[in-house]
Write a structure and sequence with these properties.
Order of helices and strands: HEEEEHHHHEEHHEHE
Mean pLDDT: 89
Number of strands: 8
Radius of gyration: 25 Å
Shape: elongated
Number of helices: 8
Length: 202
Amino acid sequence: MVFEDGFFHADPHPGNIIMIGPEDAPVIGLIDLGLVGRLSEDLRDGAIRLLIAAATGDAAALADALLALGKPRGGVDVRAFRAEVAVVSEKYLGRPLKEIETSALLRVKRLAAKCAELVRTRDTGTLQYELYFNSDNTECLVFERYRDSQALLDHHKNLGDTMAAILQTCSGSSEICGTPSAELMEKLKDSPVQVYTPFLAA
């Protein structure tokens, strides 16, 4: 459908796909055509070249196909671009999908959801635990509030290796507002966490 007719259904979830026709000759039927699109013959040819290059592991042809399909906004260092594509191709092409790690964003969101689940099921002194992403999903703010210093220590213990897994995927920084206990201050002694103690409240 895509490569022969240049037409595609842009929302092909199971609810929009039905089986029609006799059992011995079933036909796939698509419904809800409110979100569809078309590919020009040039785009179809470019997509085919892209798929062939990926299937054959030809990194140079893959880079050329990507350049042909794209619309660069400025000058492109073709040699550097081909080198980058070659690095990515060597890492991913030919590998089963199950062996390819999801994007950093999806991994961070999955681990963040795991943290929230651990808060719900294990923490007893966590009063607030909220996550906020900026508009382009490049930064995340985690707002946490604890009953006392011991509750914060218990929280980090309950997270186990989850926080370490997040920090292997992205960078981060932390600040504490309050009056930490001596035990918590000792734990923070060699860490980059900044502590802000109370001054005024209204």
